[in-house]
Every structure is written in structure tokens, then in C-alpha cells.
Amino acid sequence: MMPKKIMAPAALLKEFALTKREMRRIIKDFHGEMERGLCEKPSSLKMLPTYVDRPTGNERGAYIALDLGGTNFRVLTLELKGKGRIAGLKVMKFAIPKKIMTGEGKELFLFLARSIKKFLLADRARLDKAIDLGFTFSFPIKQRSVASGDLVVWTKGFEAKGVVGMDVVGLLKEALMREGLSGIRVSALANDTVGTLMARAYSDPSCDVGVIIGTGTNACYTESLEKIKKLQDLAGRSGHMIINIEWGNFNKLKATRYDRLLDEATDNPGCQILEKMVSGMYLGEVARLVLADLAKRSILPCGSKFLAAFRKPMSLKSEYVSMIESDRSSGLSKMDALLNSLGVSGSSAEERMLIKSACGIVSTRAAGISASAMAAVVTKIDPAVSKKHTIAIDGSVYEKHPGFSAKIKNALKEILGRKASRIRIVLSKDGSGKGAAIIAAVAAQKRGRPDA
Fold first, then answer.
1. Domain coordinates in residue numbering, the chain
2. In this structure, which of 4, 7, 279, 318 has its CB flanked by the most CB atoms within 10 Å?
3. Which is it for strands 72-82 and 85-95: parallel, antiparallel or unpaired?
4. Cβ distance 379 to 422 under 8 Å?
5. What is the pTM of this model?
6. Are 116 and 127 in contact (CB under 8 A)?
7. Residues tagged active-site
8. Which CATH architecture best describes the domain 10-36+251-427?
């Protein structure tokens, strides 16, 4: 039998609540930041040109894709068959040693090239075969063309020396030449968000938005060339280009005292405000700060044990929050077992309900902010939402956090009413891999190669 539900204090509910009016204000402010970013005016949204448009779905040929965005580096090959069909997908993962992540940049790119060589040898492929490659590089870059971009700053534990400010495609090309892989042409550079959009758009012409909600969060969308004022050489040209929004840095959001505490304790205070309210890296920490406050105010009776178990910042991981919210067992027994394993023993069923309620408040706000940002992007493309739009989405929070996707869809209905039915959100798995190959295909076709 489930215990009587104890709700979190009304003041907490109010502090995290997102009303329809508030979500519409977010959309208005988001539009303003997008416009300023496109004109290269001061904005919390970078609005970075990617120099690539969506695929037609008719691209053909064999391609290599690289996916570098964490401690595991992936190499893929696949064949595009046209009409949105993909065949022959092969993948190999390579764990990047810590000394490579933090050593000399040239050694990191040599590691990538040697991994590609191992993959090709294992696949019994010719090392001198001419083939186009798409490179997903999920770190902040200033892109200068479809196949060039300078690293702005390392993140995710990478500190390889001599790379910041350098063209990462150029560094990869040098490493490929040193390993005798002269037939490989690096045709495209992209981040995982763009890859997510491209992977879905190859088979779905209505897909014009890509979103990541995982450890971090970001989005991209297709914009008319005439509206990208920062690229003056495009003036008067027709067509579209995908824009990497970098929406994690959006800062026109109502912050709670818990958000301010979290932000002040990070290495980048004042930056990545949306990301700190939405992404998997920070959801657990927001919940920890809320629960610690309830414990200190004796609202959470088992508070002393909770404070002892979770005294360190970031100690309440987002995966624990997911496990807590997913528990539907009698008396929340699964959550009890989790808390016991983490050092919070002897909690009552009522206390566990309070903890679950508080976690739910944090994740519901994250979903509401995500939905508001998505609505802002779609209405930037199509103000009246008169057409059908597919949002390709990937990331552990969206895919695995209990109820998160449903909360986003409910918030979109609240914001847009019946028009929300014209927006379809589709999980686009492995976009950072397959999408990179599709971007390479689009780039190859654009330069008129016969195999494009």
C-alpha cells in the first residue's frame, strides 16, 4: 500500500513553478537573444553558423564518421542508399587514456588517427581508399567553414595542450597523413546536436530542429540565409543553413536561491544558466540543495542523515534522482534500498514521498524550460506553427529520466494549445555518429563529387 503523499512545501512549489505566462516570456526573450546573436550583437545565444544545410535524403555513398565528445571515441562506417535509407553500419569504440586527454594535442590527434587505422584494418578495408569523413567534435568551436573550426575551450576533462585556438580539422588531417591515411578526406565538422538533426532529417523532410538533453544540453535549427546577418557575404542569397544555438548559455530565466547557490559554486558563474537548470550534469545538484535546505529547516525528519550522506557538492547524482522518481513500488521500497546504500538509513515512507516530491519539482521545471526553448525555436522558424515540424532529440535525460518526455509534451500543449499537435518530438539515437556521415555526404554533394 502506498503511503499518503506528503507534498513539498507550497513555497517550494511556487519558487520552481513555470506558469504559462512565464513560459511565454521565456519564448519572447529567447527570440530576442536569437535575433541579436544572428546579428553578432551581445547575446547569451552564440547562434553559430555551421555552413551546412539539411540533407535531401537522396545522398549516396560510403562514409566514415568520427565521434569525439567524451572519454570514449567512436569510429563508424556506413553506406547511404538514398531515399533516407542507411545500410552497413559498423562501429568501434576506443577508450581514450587520461594521459592522452591531458597530454600534448598532437598525441591526441595521433591517437584518433591510429584508432581509425585499427578500425579499417579490422574491417579489412584498404587504407589508401578515397573516402569522405564527417567529424563530430562536441566541444565549443568557432566554425569557419563546413570543414574547419577552431577550438574555443576544452571541456569534459580534456586538457590537451596546443589545441585551443587551433583548427581541429587541420590537426586531424596532419595526423591522418602521418598514419598513411591519405585517402581520407575530412569533409565536415559538426557537434552532436547538428548530427542529431541530420540523422533524422535524412529520412524525415519535416525535421528542422535538433536537441540534446543529456549531461549537457544544446539545440540547432534551420535558418534562412537572409536572416544570418553576421555572415555578410551571404547577403541576398536564398537558401538555408543550420545554426548551432548553444542554448545552454541562455540567461533570461528566473533563478531560485538554489540556482544561485549552484551557479556561485561552479567554475563558470554567470554562464550556462539554462544548462544548469536542465541538464543531467546539474539536476541532481539542484535537488541536493533543495533537500539539504529542507533538512536544515527540519522539514525533512531524516535530514541529519541526508546531510551527512550528501554533504559534498554534486554527490546526489542525477541518476539517483531518476531512480527516485521512477519508483512505483509499495512504500517506495526501491528508493529505501537506494537511500540505505547511500547512507540514509531508517527513512519513513512519508519522508521518501517528500524526497520524491522535491525531486519531481526540480525535473518538472527542467522539462518546462526545455519545452519553452523548443517552442521558441519552432516559432522562430514558423511563427504561426502552420506547418509540421519534427524535433530530433537525443540525450540521457530526455530518454531515461522518468516522465521527462511526457512533461515536455504537456508543457508544449500548454504553451501552444492545439498547434502543439503539429510538433513531433522523435528520439534520434546515435545522431552524433550517423549524422556526421550524412553531413559529410551533404558537403561532398555540394562540391560536386561523383560519389555524392
1. 10-36+251-427, 60-203+430-443
2. 318
3. antiparallel
4. no
5. 0.91
6. no
7. 74, 138, 192
8. 3-Layer(aba) Sandwich (3.40)
